[in-house]
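Hey, resending since the last one bounced:
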Amino acid sequence: MDAGGTVTAQLRNGQGFKGAPLSWFDRRNRRVEQMLGDDVAPITGRPGDIPALSVPADGDGLMVLVHESTATLLTYDGWDKVVQFVEHKNFPWFFARHAERGLPEEGVKEVYTRYSKALVGVGGAAGADHAAGLAVEFVALNNPYVDPPADGMRVRLLYQGAPLPDAQVEVYEKAAGEVTVTKLRTGEDGEVVVPIVPGHSYLLDHVVLREPDPDTEHAAEAMWESLWASMTFAVPAD
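The structure tokens again:
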């Protein structure tokens, strides 16, 4: 987009480019920022705003929108829902550990937090993504608006600041209203190469599942804690 305009972004309750748009409410957002080069600025909204984010594009370069939600507690509607989630997100160790901890199969409670980044090209769109210090996050190693590589988009997955190896990454690719899903795995360096096509949009997704951190809100009520990392970007058409 041209410099001097306004970048708008939706917060959605869902995944894979689907989900109801959420209006802005302070209680849902722990950290919301824009990064443009070395400049980092907080983003604020007005209660009820949809789209939730509206940011002046005053600079020129690669703008990175960063969002960390507040923690939310949920109760699974039956053990079958737990099984579906665990198998979908590929946690083969879960069932043995759940039993070892003496946890029931009914009323499973989980606390979750979302950590999202969106790459937006403004003006010439030059620049690079970098780690934002989120608990779990994707870091783009290429700028898709300036140097989309023919052999794929390189992305590094970080957990607590360190590369996360052998981790499942779901790639949602959107074109002409249709969404396809591919599952990849990071290498020993926490990196993955995402095949990209000009004119398509992408959403990357990874989930960390762990025993609740005592410092997390609702941790005392939860059996498990999940941390959801996502990154969205588009590849310009030829």
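The chain has one domain: 6-74+104-234.

Sorry for the duplicate.
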